[in-house]
Predict the structure.
Amino acid sequence: MTKLARELLFPLIAVLAAFIVGGILILLVGDNPLDTYRLLLGAALSWPDGIGYTLFQATPLIFTGLAVLVGFRCGLFNIGAEGQLYIAAFATAWVGITFAGWSSWLLIPLCFAAAILTGAFWGAIPGVLKARFGSHEVINTIMLNFIAVALVSYFTQYHYKVPGDPIMETATIGPGAHIPRFGRFIPNFPERIPLNVAFLLALLCCLLVYLFLWRTKWGYEIRATGSNPSAAEYGGISIRKQIVLAMAVSGGLAGMVAINEVLGYRYRYYDGFSDNYGFTGIAVALLGRNHPVGVILAALLFAVLQHGGIYVDGFSEHVTKDIVQVLQGIIILFVAAESFFKWLVGRVRPVERLRA
Amino acid sequence: MRDIFTFSLIASTIRLATPLVLAALGGLFSERSGVINIALEGKMLAGAFTAAAVTYAADNELHLGNASPWVGLLGGIVAGLFIAVIYAVSCIKFKADQVVSGAAINILMIGIPGFLSGAFFLSSGSTPQLPKDHLLPQSPVIIAIAVLALVALTWYVLYKTPFGLRLRAVGEKPEAADAAGVSVSKMRYSGVLIAGILAGAGGAYLSIGQSSLFTRNMTAGRGFIALAALIFGKWRPVQTLFACLLFGFTEAVSIQMQGVFKLPSGEDIPVQFIQMVPYVLTIVVLAGFIGSSHPPRALGVPYQKEK
């Protein structure tokens, strides 16, 4: 088997196996799995709504998938993308509100910087804690998620909520901070579909992450730290520096979700906007086998499922959109326990040999 | 400040700390055996949903009356155990990454209760309301005694029995334990399965003790707070109990203050800052600012028997 085929085969088997297990669950609650899957997967195919919304939903997942990927490549598990993107989204909205009168030429780059730098800052904290005190980034990123959510909820509620607005959201950002939606360039593509240039930015980031990790000295040092920390240190690489750098880059990528959400979609900070993007990012990176191209494919798959979930809710008798999370969980479980399939193959093979 | 320490606040601290203690002690068994347990959240959700659903069924289909919450508790425990079996097989037999599998379980358990309640109760993620007299006991005295007994039992098992010694040995130096004839995987299975039982019971107390139904994502991060308490308690039973009480207290305060917490000087502390306390304390303790907190040495490392 060539390397590429193997890289593609395991994720495909994991997805297929998850759909089979999910299908059994659907049968158990009394629906026809084929009908459910037709709704779930078919919804994404329609033009312009299906494709538009699916690509829109893939955008944050590409960013968080890349964020988790950069961490993994350094041997770090960033479960904190959720907190990083919340902090970044609030900071981006704050810049967009505070400098609302500025022209796009200044305001958009400033908002981009706010999104990336705030995310990077929040990501660097567990990096520093690990590098300086050796405390585990998994625990710290989980804790920082809760702290981030509480912190932005405080700022929204006490300082930036529009008086009288029953919803926990800030005022809108200045028009100069809006980034264009696809509807402006593509004929017959309505502007109500929130797909915006952040999607192109996400694709660009895939390329940049690839170049950074595999074509620069910094990326090489990060990967060396990830694959064998003691050898890397022996080779003169400062592991501590790589840990902080990788976590900052990871946080910055997670923070870029804010560009899609605040500058391209809602034009304000909306409390609780993230549909578990940070955690789905873990699934995206794992299923994408920690490669930028894999991240794009996995993000598209999960976006298709998420979009289809709405239709399942509306049109199937028993199954709810929760099937999406169920499938996601099973997929990661299978991807994590890759040796399960090897074990399965090992058990099946002797039988085949007997037959031959 | 004077009227903060009222009886009702103490009572609600105990009630809110109970699911945390159960889950954290479960996590203790698992982590002392060397298996990270970020899946506590998912196990609690499984326990909470199943307990509420089973209690409802026992009440309405089997007409068990006052016995139904106990059947429900058993259901919650079985659900926690079931999830723990999946987790244990994936982490111990197939040597999957423990954090990844834990994250998978958590994501799965956000979906499963909604999926099942949609099918069985035609609702969007909650179970039907249970009658007030068909719930687990809520008297702070009774649950305080139960919780203390459980902590004492955990302490005894962990430090005074051969089982506890083996469990701790497997979490610290699996090679040495293996050489001494202890089965590493058997001990780790035990640790993870006990975690499932206790976290399932903790979840059950949330849905059929503290409230009277299951609602979507009702643990709201309590599995992670339990994990935080375990770390804050330095992986020791008695300290973990105190950590759970402290975190239960912050939750009780943030509920009772309804938004604002007044300092004696008259300044307001927004509730969000009180909610942050457990998380900030955990980071501080883990970094070693207040004494040092060392996880079991083999935590998170799958054991590969030498051939």
